[in-house]
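This entry is passed on directly below:
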Amino acid sequence: MQLNVYLAGEIHTDWRETIMEACKGLDIEWYGPVTDHDASDDCGVEIFGAEDAKFWHDRKGALLNAVRTRTGLERADVLVVCFGEKYRQWNAAFDAGYAAALGKPIIVLQPPEFDHALKEVDAAANAVARSPQEVARALRYVISGKL
């Protein structure tokens, strides 16, 4: 079985690389957001011109990034969304909601201390993992049917 997997969520740790490395040999096409924080923030004004107000600066970038995000989520068979500890990932929650609205299966990656705050996201998910290794094992199981 081949899967298209979108990796959404925090961009400050190597969780994506850990999952992809652990899934080597599986037939997975990976999608995700731009993880270069500066490029993601500034893409709109770099391409379409500067803005005086931060709101419009951010909006230009968000709209352009949404092209990538929506396309990736719509192509995805599965969404893996990671909620990390450094920043609140409002965008990750939005991605999970969008994927749920599209009827996509969702695997959430989060520490136990986020359980209460993410209870609605977790209720929409098919699985809640505590480590990238658990996510990789889940994807391996989904593809191969073997533990």
In short: The domain at 3-32+75-144 is CATH 3.40.50.450 (Rossmann fold). Helices lie at 15-22, 37-48, 54-75, 90-101, 119-124, 132-144.
